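User: Is it possible to get a 3D structure for a protein together with its bound compound? The compound here is zinc ion. I've pasted both below.
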Amino acid sequence: MTGPNPNLACARSGLLDSLRSDGAATPDQLAELAAHHAACAACRGQHLVAARVDRAVGDRLRRRAAGSVPSGFAGAVVAAAVAQRAQALAENRFLRRAAAAAVLVALVAGGSMLTQSAAPDGARPLGEGVASARDAARTVVFRPRFEGR
Ligand SMILES: [Zn+2]
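Assistant: Yes, that's possible. Here is the predicted structure of the complex:
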């Protein structure tokens, strides 16, 4: 029988060191890690390097987080959000008008087709219903959009 595989113990040490670095290692895992570091110079060296990198990154993040926010930043963010909401509302208003105009055009076109087919021959020129539907759409959609500004 051979003893425990040292490579496996070193791989586990790396995982435990990662857990320790995230603050997620249990006391038993920390004890296992310390025992392995006491016996394995390679893992102990890697642990020291990793701990130094962790400290440097943490220090850098804390310095950045403590940095001051430019003056007027909050106001600019609120103004941008309000402007974006107003633009979205205007776009939704346009879409609602366009949908209403589409329904109106369909109704007018359908109605004019019915009256055309019911009228005696030559009473209405072909395409008059489409032209009046186009006028209705222009009146409902485009005029309010440009007059409203
Ligand atoms: Zn090791």
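DSSP finds five helices and no strands in the chain. Residues 9-10, 13, 36, 40, 42-43 surround zinc ion (CB under 6 Å).
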